[in-house]
Amino acid sequence: MELIFDFVAFIFRPVGYLLVDIVGELFLRGLGSLICRACGWRVDPDRFVVLLVGFICWIFIIFTCYLSFSFLLESFDVDRCLDSGGSYNYKAGICVKEKL
Length: 100
Prior knowledge:
Blueprint: H1 2-38, H2 48-83, E1 87-89, E2 94-96
Transmembrane segments: 15-36, 48-69
Keywords: Membrane, Transmembrane, Transmembrane helix
């Protein structure tokens, strides 16, 4: 059984290191270094500040994408409701269709 665990660790350990290097170096430190340089800060790319700035920027990007996506979904619901001849109640978030 131990031989199987060693084999699995042998296979997945490089994959894990590769993912950590890509996420840590390219996405977090790369974006953090780019933002720091754009702001005119002379910061060593290996500093914690660069990592923190990159992390905060990615949180901001993800949050902005979430807000944009939810706004677009609501806009599509409103458009679909109005196209079908109803009226949209924004407070309740529902389409109201009047019966004749």
